[in-house]
Amino acid sequence: MNMLGVSMFLIGQCATIYDIQQPADPANGVYDSQCLDSTVTIAAKVLYYNGGGFNFYVFQEPYGPYQGLLVYRGSVTLPANLSTGDSVIITGTVQEYFGNTEISLTADVIIVDSGHPIPSPILITAAHLDTTASSSMFDMQPDTAESYEHVLVRLENVYVVDVVTIGSGTYAKVTDGTGYTYIGTGSITYNPTVGDLLNAQGIVRTYYGQYVVEPRNDADIEVLTLGLNAAFAISRDQIKVMYTTDVSGNSEVVDPANYTLNPALNITAANYDPDDPRAVILTTDPQTDGQLYTIYVNLSTLQDSFKFYGGIMPITQIQSNFVYDSATRDFPSVYADSAYPVTVAGVITGWKDKFPSPWVFIQEASQPYAGMLIWGLGTSDVVATEGDSLIVTGYVTEYNGLTEIADLLYTRVVSGPFPYEPVIASPSALTFTNDSSEMYEDVFVRVDSVYVIDTAGNNVTVTSYPPDTLVYFEVNKEALTNIVLVPGMLMNVQGPVRRIYGTVTIYPRSDADVDSLAVGIAENAITPAFRIVRADRSGIEISYNLPVGGTFDVEIYSVAGRLLASRHIDAAERTGTIRIPVTLRSGIYVVRAGKYTSKVVVR
Q1: Model-level pTM?
Q2: Domains in the chain with CATH codes
């Protein structure tokens, strides 16, 4: 029945993903969910989450058709620790978005526990997703294709017959003789070529009227025919050549004579990549920074070419070579406004979805002068997250004293995660009037024991503790959800840094980048900050920070409230890492430090 325009269902009618994915009236061509516009609460497991903070896929068992569903965050912030394999409880409204059934969240996602295995992809044929007359299952369509929406599937021995543009994406049109379907390439490095033979897997979605398969990563594509996938510089004298198949036993690919470069450059060696059986590392004479090269591959079974920008310039070289402007206290790079582009590489320390503007920050090492803001990538559809490696070619520019790479010519995401650590800085080092603050521009920085002075606007003003009127910088609060920055708060904070408009600002990416140590701080009223570093059956390791005098106890409890172990921390051990040895079974435990508590799962 329908009351005031809101669909009303009997209890239990929309209790499962299977219920939600059932079409309302397939006999009359209505494939919208029968639960459309209903608010539902379901328990499910995360099938796939790429860490981007927007959407994720869930499933229920027994796994099969109609058992996958897209979850859209809406205005709700996803948990920072959400990951594939989590068991979750989600509440939201059932919606249709361009033909895709989804739940738009109206409440926070509750993580029940983690580490569950995800199901193996379901083997289907191209005909299952082909709703045209070319499908051998045409009489069953579109019912069959719709049943696999948001389900993880696998296609085997499919040929690429065309490379097409659908919407804003590039897709390989494939067939196995039963029909045709499409495989997306937006989040993988595979470069489809007509004639390629593939095994492919991914999650099905509806896109511009087609049922398409979206691979999650490079491992979801297995190319069964030898081809050239890509080539890109990894240093000033090395090039990585990516093939579509395992070439570790192919002697031709490690013969330098089988490669040539234009403009001409000597290739002095070719070696198998020890980390990737599909890749070869070429050693060359020094490449010209930002030069567009074409590499030609001439094997007995493959003749192909690929264009790339050579010569990776160290970010530290760009950031530390500057001309000081004493009037503005700015340090414009000597490479700014050059007629020649540069290629840089680094690990992503801040992705565009975390900031008030579409910025991307990368860092080549955990040291000063090693960070760079990438402008322009933030408005593109490139998919990546923190910890991925990024190669970028563009022009060095200065924006009100901030050095960045803009006017991009080339980008390549190399999936991670790669480890990175913040650069530790003191509050005084980040004060704009301290010229050494320039070395932290665009760098992922951590500052401990800073005191909040003023919270007006989107940025809060902070100083060292005890407060110092000559020491101050700003912390942006727009990415924070549950942590409220108030005057008198003492905290540790980390994030990428911008040095612009006469101010140095740290941009935390989420609540996880802020450790609130105390509010309304007094000399002897201290709440310790702590985080769990490691938990296993032999004990729990934590790090802690006690900014001024005081003592506290670290205690481990069972979920039933029984004290299992404890450790006393005094003022002489103000900061550090400790391990509390105790025999633990698999399960959930509570760790308490002062007034702070945290749950931890031991497996």
Answers
A1: 0.60
A2: 2-113 (2.40.50.200), 122-223 (2.40.50.140), 228-309 (2.60.40.1220), 423-518 (2.40.50.140), 529-602 (2.60.40.10)
Q: Please give the Cα distance from 536 to 333 (Å, whole number).
A: 48
| Rounded distance between C-alpha atoms, residue 7 and residue 500, angstroms | 52
Give 444-493 pLDDT, tens digit per residue: 999 999 999 888 889 999 998 877 778 889 999 999 988 889 888 899 99
b/e code 45-60 from CB counts within 10 Å (16+ = b): bbbbbbbbbeebbbbb
Closest alpha carbon to 506 in 471, 529, 482, 478? 478
Instruction: Check whether 578 has a pLDDT greater than 90.
Output: no
The pLDDT assigned to 6 comes to 34
Q: Is 317 helix (H, G, I), strand (E, B) or coil?
A: helix
| In the block, residue with structure tokens 């205005």 | 75
574 CB-contact burial (10 Å; exposed 0-12 / middle 13-18 / buried 19+): middle
CA 381 to CA 384: how far, in whole Å? 10
Nearest to 239 by CA among 219, 217, 261: 261
Among 406, 388, 420, which residue's Cα sits nearest to residue 187? 388
- Residues 197/159, Cβ–Cβ less than 8 Å: yes
Structure token pair of residue 286: 């020094």
- CA nearest 84: which of 39, 116, 106? 116
- What would the two tokens of residue 21 be? 């994915």
Q: Which two tokens stand for residue 211?
A: 């049922």
Helix (H, G, I), strand (E, B) or coil at 352: helix
